[in-house]
Amino acid sequence: DAMVIQNPRYQVTQFGKPVTLSCSQTLNHNVMYWYQQKSSQAPKLLFHYYDKDFNNEADTPDNFQSRRPNTSFCFLDIRSPGLGDAAMYLCATKMSGSYGYTFGSGTRLTVV
Amino acid sequence: AQTVTQSQPEMSVQEAETVTLSCTYDTSENNYYLFWYKQPPSRQMILVIRQEAYKQQNATENRFSVNFQKAAKSFSLKISDSQLGDTAMYFCALNSGGSNYKLTFGKGTLLTVNP
Q1: Which of A65, A82, B14, B77 suits a disulfide with B21, CB 3.0-4.6 Å?
Q2: pLDDT(B103) > 90
């Protein structure tokens, strides 16, 4: 299965200071996803890519943007992080031969 | 739209015993996929077991098995011989297919295995 690598594992940013989270996957799969997971809650889909076709969910705040410069890499940009954006951010891609996902280890974002 | 409901926010079980986690779902698709994911505290989310809706036979993976009732739209997870390492948040998830393979999660059940 594809490995999904997220960096960094922990990120601390200041209120209002732009921050970028990164994700890479090893099998060059055409779909990638970004989820936000707040404490003790289900993951919430922010964005997904099918090839270069970018889709954001209707309720994803404008404060969040995403870039996919090539098949392997995907970035999540938070333009002006607020305290409410503190969460675990999960990146995922499709599992080979399955409709399941392989997740990265996540980046835990703290906003101070 | 697809929805997933887990009605048990928390459960506990004694080590070596059996526990069943409940999940119901709704989708208008006839062909779809169901999953149980495990997320230990502060650790990576990993796939436990999956079920294709077109398969009548319930999926089994070692100590983990499911009870898939398609007509009732129910998909429960049974963990046999519970181990301390099974302590985690368990998420039920649904994928109705399509080109984007979007996964919808339930709110999760926090399972604690007690020694």
Answers
A1: B77
A2: no
